[in-house]
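Why does residue order matter? Because the sequence determines the fold. Keep that principle in mind as you read this record.
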Amino acid sequence: MITFGICTGGNQEERINKLIDSIEKQSIPQYEVLVIGSANIKRANTRIINFDETTVPMWITKKKNIIASEAKYDTLVMMHDYMRLNDDWYG
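Structure:
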């Protein structure tokens, strides 16, 4: 059971979808994906957490704290939207 937290600055749907694709390839029995920032993503096991970038643009530490407080599972993997998992990451 893993929560993947993805920090984004917004308008990075293509990068986020590629990252989620790499998570889905892992065949993890139970997981969730939390994307924080402005994103228009609708995928299974994925929830968007809106974040007002006008307060402090790219406030990464705040975003990570929000992800941690919203996580459903104890195992938490923090990621940025430009990352990808290797195909055998979970194996």
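Residues 18 and 70 are 23 Å apart (CA to CA).
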